[in-house]
Structures are given as C-alpha cells and as structure tokens.
Amino acid sequence: NLSLFPPVRPPKKTSPKKPPTKQQAAMAEEQMEEASSSAAASGTPFQLQFDKPIPFQIKLAEWNPEKDLLAMVTDDSKVLLHRFNWQRLWTISPGKCITSICWSPDGKIVALGTEDGFVLLHDVENGKMLRSIKSHDVAIICLNWAEDEPLSRTDKEDLLSYEDRTTRFFPPAPVMPRIGGLNSGDTGLADENEEAIQAFSSASCQRFNILCTGDKDGCICFSIFGIFPIGKININKVPIHVQSSGKRTSYRLQDVSISKQVSLSRNLHQLVLLCSGKLINTDNLSLSNDLSVGVHCLHLDTSIFSNRKNELHQVSQQASSIQDLVEVVRASISMMSKQWSNAMNLFHEKFSALPSLLTAHGMESSSEDEFMSLLFGTHTSPALHQFLVSSLGEAGLKRIAKTIESAGRELRIVVSEHLQPAVEIISFRLAELRGLARWRSRFQNIGLDEKLMDGVTERVGMLVVQVERFSRVAATVLYLFQNFLSWVLKCVKILLSEPTDQVPSTNSELVVIFLKFLLDKDPIKQLLETDQIFEWDIDTAKHVEHLVVFGGFTDTKFLERSLAKQFSELEESLKEAFLMPFTTVSSQIHCQGLLPLYPVTSSDALSSTSTPASIAFYKDKDSQHNASSYSSTDYICFKIPDGSLNLRNFVAVIKDFCNSCSTSNTPSLSGFLLHIPVEYECVDLSLYKDNQVVLLLSGKSSSENAGRSWMVMLQTENLSFSQFSRTFPANYYNLQELEALELQLDTDYGKVRSVPHPLSTPLAVSASRGVACI
Amino acid sequence: QNLRLSSHVLSDFGTDGLSIANDNGSFSTSWLRNLSDASSSWHSSSTKPRKLITNDFDNFHFHAQPSPIPTSVLQLAGSAYLMRATAWEHYGSAPMVRMNTLVYATCFADAASSSELSLAYVKLIEQLAVFKGYSAAFCALKLAEEKFPSSTNSQIHLLKMQLLHERALHRGHLRIAQQICDEFGVLSSSVSGVDIELKTEASLRRARTLLAAKQFSQAAAVANSLFTTCYKYNMQVENASVLLLLAEIHRKSDNAVLGLPYALASQSFCKSFNLDLLEASATLTLAELWLALGSNHAKRALSLVYQSLPMILGHGGLELRARSQIVLAKCHLTDPEFSVSEDPCAVLDPLNQAAEDLQVLEYHEMAAEVYYLKAMTYNHLGKEYEREEAAARFKEHVTALENPRDEEDSLVY
C-alpha cells in the first residue's frame, strides 16, 4: 500500500510558449531537491529551472558527472552540449548514426557508440574528436565508464604505486606530423587538436577507469582509459552454470541482444547487464521451450579488474602511449613518403622531356651521357641546349630546386621532430614494460609475457638502426640534389650568358655521382616502401654477425629490410604482445549468475531493447570500510512489457542480485512490483542516488489524461522489498511471486510533480548534481 | 636536451654552413675500392635467387657511393649515441644502453675512431657480463682483443681487469682479487689530482675486496677516504655509490643502525641526480638493513622491496636481481604473520629465480644463501626429498667458497 504526495499545483512556467508542433520536443530541466528538503513542505517538489522548446527530437541524453553539462544526441545523430543555463557549447555531427552515449568519470570526455561499432571519444571543451576506436562489428547499444573509487586505496597500494619515468627523462611526446609542416599558415586549428590529444593522454590516465561497451550481438568489450582494449566477452559463448539442488547445469544464451543497460560496479568487481535471448540447456538441448526466450539479467565476475588494478593500470599506461607513438611513426613514414614522391614526380616530369628531345634530334645518347659531356666541357648538344634553355628554363629549374628543398626540409623536420623522438620514447617505454614483465608473480596473470616483450624490444632496436640509416641516406641524397641543381642552374646561366656569381659553387665529382646514381633512381623511396629487399655486402654481414657475440641483434637479416618494412614488423610483434593481456584478461571474466526476468515473444524481441530499464550500484551504508574493499548493492529497475507474465503496466525493482549469486546460502535477492495506474504508462525510468527511483509517467492517449504527465520519485526504502527465491531452472520466471504494490499519485511516499506536456524518452538524471532533464 | 639536439647534426647537414667541399681524395679512394669489388660481386649477385635491390647510398652496401658527408660530421653524430648510452647507464635503463650502443656499432663503425668504437664494444661486453654472465662476456672479450690489441687499447685492458676482479670476488678467490686490485693501483699516475677516475675505481675495488674478506674496519676506512676524495672532486655518482658501499659494510658487520643513515643519504643523492637504478639498489639495501633490525620491521622492508622491484627487474643485472629476490623471500620468512605452508610460492618462486641467476654468475656466497633458505622452506613444508637436494647444493657452494681449489683459473678466460 503506497501513498504519495498530494497532487501538486501546476508548475509556473518560465517559458511562456508551448511547443507548437509535435516534432518539437520540450525539454525541461528540473532541480531535484534533496529528499527531505523544504521544497516538499512548500508543496513544490522538483523546482522547474527551464522549459525550452527545441527543434529536434532527442534520442539520448546524459549529464556530465562533474559539471552541469548536458550532452544530447538528436534523431539525426547530431551531438549537442548544453550548459545548465541552456547555453549551447558546441554541436557536432560525426556523420554516423549514434546509438549510445556516456561520459568519462572525470567528465572530460564524452564517449559515443555508433551503429557500425565505433567508439568515438570527444573532448568536452570543444567537441573535437580525440579517438575513434573500432571495437565492435555491430551497433554499440550501451556504454558504461566506471572508475576505481579512490576510497578503496590503502597504504599498501600507495607503496605499490608506480612512477612513469618517461616524463622525467623525455620532453613531451611528439605528435603526428602535419601536412605543410612549419610553413603552413593556419596553425590555429591543428594546434588545438594536438594539445587536446596531448592533454588527453596525460590527464586521463591518472586514475584507473574502464569503459565497457556492449553491442547488439552480445559482445562486451572492456578498455582501460577508453583507449586500451583489455578484454572482450561474447555473451553468446559464455557458459552459465546454475546450481540447483546440488546439481550443476550448464546453460548458454543464444541470439543475445544486449539491452540498453550494462553497469560495472564502482569497485570494478562485478558487472550486471540485461539482455534478451534464448536460454538453452547445453547438457540437454531438447529442454528449451518458447518460454526460454526472454529478458535475462546476467552477473559477470570482473574481479580481475579490481584485484589487478595496479598492474593493469601500469601496463595500460605504458601500452596506450606506445600505441599513440606507433601511430605517430606511421603518420611520419606515410607523410615523408608522400612529400618525397610529390617532389620526385615534379623532378622526373620536368627531366623526362630530355630523352624525348634527344630522340627528336635523332641522337642515340642517354641524358646521363649528355650531362656528362656538358660537365666535362666537350660540347652541348642542341637537344640538351634546347632542354636547358627553353623547356626547362631558369624559372622551371628554380621551381624544382625549391620543391625539392622544401620536401627535404619536411623530411628533416619529420625525422628529427617526430620520427626519432617517437621511436626513442617507444623503446624506453618498451624497456619499462619488459621490466614489469619480469615480475612474474604480479604480471604474468594479466598476460604480460616476457618473451614477447623481449621480441618487441629487439624489433624496436632494429627500427632505431633503420631510422639512422634512413636519415643518413636522406642527408646524402638531398645534398647531392642540391649540388646537382645548382650546377644545372649555373650551366643554364652560362648558356644564357648571364652572370653566375649568384650561384653557389658546386662539386663536380658529386655531380657525376648524381648523374650515375640518382638521375633515374630514388633511394629514399626504396627505404619508404615495404616490399623492397636490399642487397648488402659480405663485410657488413660479417660485422653484424660479429656483433651478435657482443649481444647484438640476433636477427642478422634486418639490414635487408626497408624502414617501412621494419616498422610493420614492429607493429606486428607489438600487436601480438598486447594481445596476450587481452586474451588472458578476457578468459578470466566469468558469468556468475543468471536471473530470467520476463519472457518475450519473438515478435517483440526487437522492441525489448528499448524497454526502459536502469541498473545501478550503491555503496552499502553499513559496510565497514575495511581498507581493501567495500561491498555494494546492485539495484535493477525495469518496466515489464505489457502482456508479459500476464502483467500490465508494471515496473519491477530488484536488489542484491549480485550478492545472491556469489553467496548462494543466504538468499538475499529481493524486490517488488509496482503497478502504474491504468490511465498512465511508464515512459522511462531511472535509478537515482541513495536507492531512489525516478519514473516518468505519461497519460495514455485514450484516457482523459492525455497530454498530462507526471514525474515521480520514490524512496525505495519506504517500500517493502519482499524476498523471492531463485527457483530457476525449475521455474523460469518467478517475478510474480513479488508483492505487487499499487502506485497512487496522491499519497505520501515519494515526490510527484505533474508536467503539462506529453513525455517521451529520454529521462536523464544526474546524481552528482541533483538535476533531471525530461 | 643537448644530446637530442646533437642528433640533428646529420639531418641538418647541407642546410647551412655545414657543407664543406672536400676534395681531399677520399672520393677517388672509395671509387677505386668499389671498382675492384665490382667485378666479382656482379657475378655473385646475379646468381642470387631473390630479386634484390641495391641502394646506392646505403652505408650497408659496399657498392655504396662515397658519401659527401665528411667523416667528422659522422663521428659527431655517432658519438651522440655513445653519449646517450652512457647517460642511460646512469639514469638506469639497460635496454636503452644496449640499443644506443648497438646503433653506434652498427651504423657508425665505418666512420668511428678506434677509441670510440672500442668504447662501444666495452659497453656491450659490460652488459653481457652483467646480464648474461662471465662466460659470454669473456668470449666476447676475446674477439674484441683481436679487433683492438689490448697493448694499444687501455679501455679493453681495463675492462678485462674489471671482469676478472668481479669474477674473482664472486667465486671467492680473494687472493686473486687482491692481486688485480694492486694492478689497478699501479695503472694510475702517482701525481695527485690526475687519473682521478682510475684512482676512485681502484680504491672502490679495494674496499669491496676487503669487504669480501670481512676486514670491515679496513674496508670502512678505505671507503671513507674515498668519499672525501669524491666529495672534493664533485663526483656525485661515485659519491652515491660509495655511500651505498658504506651502508653495505655496516650491514655486513652487523651494525644495521649505523648503516641506515648511509643508505638514506645515498638514496636521496640518487633521487636528486635521477640515478634511478642506483636508487633502487639503495632502497634494497635499506630494506636489508630494516630486516636486520628485527622481524617486526619485515612489513616495512617488504614494501621497500616492492618499491624497488620494477626498476631492479627491468634494468638491474643478474646479481642485483638475485639479491632482490633473496630479500623478498627473507621478508616473507621473517614476517611473523606469514606462514610458509599457506603460500609456499611466495618464497619458493623468488628463490628459484635467484638460484637460476646466480648459477650463471658463479656467485657462490649468495647461491649458498639461496639454497640454505630453500632447504629451510622445504623443511617447513615437510618435503624431505627437496630439502635434502637443496642442502646438498648448499654444501657444494660452501665448499667451493671455502676451498678455492682452482684459484689459478681465475686469471684464465
């Protein structure tokens, strides 16, 4: 028996105009008062702050956990960020259909899940995309970003804290090279972006946090800091063991679709999720029936995250910045290759006119011969004369010289500002990781493998050699080009009988070398391509083999590879090395328990994902803070679809599901059902701090209450939870056992406010700020 | 910062006044060299099954054309790598030392001066001795001596003596160790203020030899005078290591309380100079000192060991690693709240790892300690067969230590 607040008087509107059309959704922000505040006495629970018409339909909305910021996703997948005073900060259109949204625990990053399986991380400051990570193949339905509670830190862990030495010995990590390099005029935009990325990698890695992403097909991925993938679990393949009367039965879920809700507890110990699917008995396949298709609540044991959080934090801190730097190296190589081939294209385009001119003049000599004879002063053939003076000309020559010079400058900048520092920091960080890998008792069980790390360290050493080789070849080639082009310029001036005192002096020996080896070859390009195998002489081979005795690289064939090839080998071995923690951690996530909630017929299985539901963990008030851990209670609140379980218009609240899974001897699982008055339907619901439930009720269009809606907040403590047994698998769904309470909008158990608009999803409540947006 | 800038010397070559026209005939020489090689190589390369590409400017290819970059520039660029390797030795990142030295030895060997190249080899051999044991190091040393005859190259000679001394200390051949120490003393000039580095090294080694011979007061006296010298000449790295040695001397002479201030001073010295590896070993010594003060300090010692472990395991040599594993096991064993039967792995794993490392190092004294601890643990666990085995190994090492039979071997390698 439930009594609620008396109906309150209609709220004062701060905005006089009502939304004129149905397309315009009304957004109202309401201040939720503390449960026992004076507002209740004055008769107005939920103080209305704003009531603004907006021109789009809102699909998703989420409050920033730290600041009064509201992120919203519209139906056409634009993302808006509003302040509490309704000032809009930014709007972005990622160009993809967005299916889920959540904030990072520090409120600095908003994570978006897209229909094609990408997670996009955007900066709260300006909406710039920081990362785009493809972790799923299908739409990401739910995101949950949980951070380790600082309260659970103890003295012991502080001593185990690990210092990342990189900042002490290295300048800030290099960023991706930009096209245009230093001479580009518009530095503004790109600079900001770089700073953002920089800030992202340094600031967001201070505290250990994990982003869980769940997709439509039942895969859940975990990534540390939202960027370093650390685990993946497919609900379709997870064995579910159920103990019933001493017998152990294995089940499996089929055709899983994760509903909107996945929640990782704040101590990172357990994960609760709602999903729909068909439950099949793997021991006896014939036992499954129609009833087995339904919405189930699963409890996954993720204690590996909390037990090994220090180790995971250290590894992911190093590994994620290594991955960033690998991207920098990749970008540097591709950019150098692009810049250089552009310059070379121009050079070859201009100089290819000479052979055709030679044939036109009926001469059989090559361009090399012609230049040679020009160099040694024997004669200037008419073809060469024509080429130098008219088809190339002084202006053309200067253009080539300028292009090659600027390409060379780009190359130098990229090598010295991006490539070399990036490779150096990668090798330092890998060395640190290798040290961690040697601490077998701590790091082996999260999959940091010593052998693999050794292999990667070896590869990165070879890459440093390759970078050195490349920079030397590049310096030589550029110098020769410079020398050759000024010689040609001098020749042109002489042919035109112009003074040559402006032209720098040249070395004729180097011109010969250029003519013989560079006119139709491109050694820089060779090093930047992956499919080249280089010849190298016996002396060098001996030298390298000799070095093995002194502890050199055991793979003596590395000089055959090009820079790009060596880099791709490094990438491969890095991937392999980082896959180990991923698979090791994934294999340690188990299913702890299953609770079938309600059956669904296959026809409305699709719509089940949109059924309102909310899962939250609350810290136990009575749990004593014994340093290492604290217990938390999970609350699961969801609407039962009409017709299922022969119930209509019911909302169920269940608590202590996790604890009932782990300790089977004390059945603490309890809950209640709440019957919504028939003339209303529950549009959305959410759990709110300290065990409260917020419901949005909208009048049914058929009833006289159409257009009138209510926002209700219930104190679950005031409601009677009744225990119910988990008789599964004997009886699938036993939610009916629960006491059904009648929700009356005129009694005194919670707070109620009427809203003069028809309501639709979403309801966004913010526990830290005490605000809701409907 | 400066070292990083120095690597720009190569990439910036040719952009500004760096380009010098060198017509000193070096080009003609390399042309001639290539000419003689060319005829034979044409034949051999054409028969190779794979399609190979020649890069005419690659310094690893012998057809490579003479480079316009003068040798002096290359030497400058190369010594940046050697400097980096040395810097990392102090800052404590072993893989970085190896990598930078290898880059030097691979890429700059053709342009390097013999003293710098031999320095690179010395660094590589030192790494081998610390991480792979003496047999690998002496094997490499032989090759290096062929390359750089030791009569002309003092660095290689010095390295040989260092390695021999370390090995003699580890094997317990104190007479030989003393002999090498004396040789060290002779190497340096007798004028004061000259050859300071050599002199400090000699007295450091003398103090260590005395310590190994359990002549504590003499060792402390040598170390104290050494500290004064280092302080006078502002040798900070040596300062820190001498302080650590003093702490060690006090620990071994059962004066843990006296050792504590030295270890703490060394630790804070290292902190201010970013000498991370030395700091980690100072922390380890500190843990040992606390442990020596009684079992009620085991918890504190354990946390100190945990603090230093990532650094030591990642960058420390075999000896340091083994020492830290032993201290870890000892911390557990002395902790009154710890019970071996509940978690035998916590003690046995580190001990096994330490035994493995010490085997390579031929360090009898510490190996004996490991097997003693192992035997004790197995005794607690009631595993008699394993206990007997460990005890037998313990005895082996103790006899080897007490009766240095083949002492003359120590000079042979």
TrEMBL record, chain A:
Q: What is this protein called?
A: Anaphase-promoting complex subunit 4
Q: Does the keyword Cell cycle apply?
A: yes
The biased composition feature labelled Basic residues covers 10-20
User: Boundaries of each Anaphase-promoting complex subunit 4-like WD40 domain copy?
Assistant: 62-147
**Gene Ontology BP annotations:** anaphase-promoting complex-dependent catabolic process; cell division; protein K11-linked ubiquitination
Q: Which SMART domains does this one have?
A: WD40
Q: Does the keyword Cell cycle apply?
A: yes
Question: What cellular-component terms does GO give this entry?
Answer: anaphase-promoting complex; nuclear periphery
Q: What is the lineage of its organism?
A: Eukaryota, Viridiplantae, Streptophyta, Embryophyta, Tracheophyta
| Segments passing through the bilayer | none
Q: Which residues form the Anaphase-promoting complex subunit 4 long domain?
A: 296-497
In residue numbers, the region (Disordered) covers 1-42
Tell me the keywords, alphabetical order: Cell cycle, Cell division, Mitosis, Ubl conjugation pathway
Q: Where is the composition biased (Low complexity)?
A: 21-42
TrEMBL record, chain B:
The family database entries (Gene3D superfamilies) matched by this protein are listed as: Tetratricopeptide repeat domain (1.25.40.10)
List keywords of the entry alphabetically.
Answer: Cell cycle, Cell division, Mitosis, Ubl conjugation pathway
- Give the highest taxon in the source lineage: Eukaryota
Example of a GO cellular component annotation carried by this entry: anaphase-promoting complex
Q: What biological-process terms (Gene Ontology) are attached?
A: anaphase-promoting complex-dependent catabolic process; cell division; positive regulation of mitotic metaphase/anaphase transition; protein K11-linked ubiquitination
This chain's protein is named Anaphase-promoting complex subunit 5 domain-containing protein
* Species per Swiss-Prot/TrEMBL record: Aegilops tauschii subsp. strangulata
